[in-house]
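Page 37, top half.
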Amino acid sequence: MTTTINNVVEIIEFTDPVCTWCWGSEPVLRKLETRFGEQVKISYVMAGLVKDITAFYDSYNDIGGDPVRSNTQIAKHWLEASERHGMPVQSEEFKLFSKEYPSTYPQNIAYKAAQIQDQVLANRFLRRIREASAAEAKLTNTAEVLVELASEVGLDVARFLDDFSHGAAQKAFEEDLATTARYRAHGFPTFLVRFGKKETLLRGYKSYEEFKVVIEYLTSGTILERPTPASEAAIMAFIRTYGSVSPIEIKMTFDLTDAELQSTVDSLLTQQMITRREAGNGYFISPQISSMACDTATGICAAV
């Protein structure tokens, strides 16, 4: 569990990399980071959603048992959730479980392996697992896919594999499971919001407005959101900060109408400042890479 920081609100998400409403909470968390800046610190506890899909059953959504049947039901559930939270979902050829890989625990352990190495890269890695699972229909509980994603975000693959395979990450995950049990965070996402010695649990998906009210209450109004202009420059800075964003993340963070969002995206595309990548029932936006630009974090050079 993270250590309390003076004058900073901690938001700790009990999560699983393939939880659909955790995926749906990404726009809310990015808005919190943008509007509150360094006044808010977001971190994650890996809570382990499905130990074994063959022994799991969600009666409300009729998910569990046979892995192939479960994939069909999960894809349907995720698509319905996507229509509410707005994040992209790839329902065709959706692959989350198989007979050989019936658990989401590998994704949780993989995050802990990344965290042992570098916290910033670990959070980028968590986002890539979410994207690959929800919007790219990848079997992210396989070591091969996890290594690919780890490499993409710039992790040291050899060290990642060592921590992932030889017990260090497993031990860290078990500590997270113990923390999850201690807080009785049985549904995901669950958010622990903490300021000094005061803390409260928020269970399930929560809107930005709900977080804002809780933050103001816990801090007695000493920590407030800051004005965030909806200029193209500010939006472009937001895209550069995160590298890959969905339209709903821009719309929510900057309080745009659908028309304003579309106008901004069209303008940035026309100026060749961004690229658009189709993903399931939506798309992602990334900064345009200059010709033969090299990313110092990943060591990848790309030509456009």
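Page 37, bottom half:
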Amino acid sequence: MAHVEVGGLLRRAQAAGGFGTVLRKGDPERGTLVLVIVERGEHRAILERRLQADWTYRWSVVGPNVGDSREAAQHLARARDQDPDCWFIELDVPSSERFIAETTAEG
């Protein structure tokens, strides 16, 4: 249930002192979730939840380097073309490195 997870991610960003917005709505039940992590409006990372070899899903850092918002936009365009059901959620959070580390460690 992608739409439920999106709501949880938005609340998590808010609880961390940031905010989030849905840039693109995907399929409400099964769409892939792509997180665009920014800190004070500057691109930090793109996270995507991917299926692992052990059949569990984990968040992985994908896409361009820190600060390259043009390349990030290109990456998102490619992701949209490959999966029209995907969601793009932008989370502007303080301590983005910590947020990314916690998210990728949780799975």
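Margin note: The chain has one domain: 2-106.
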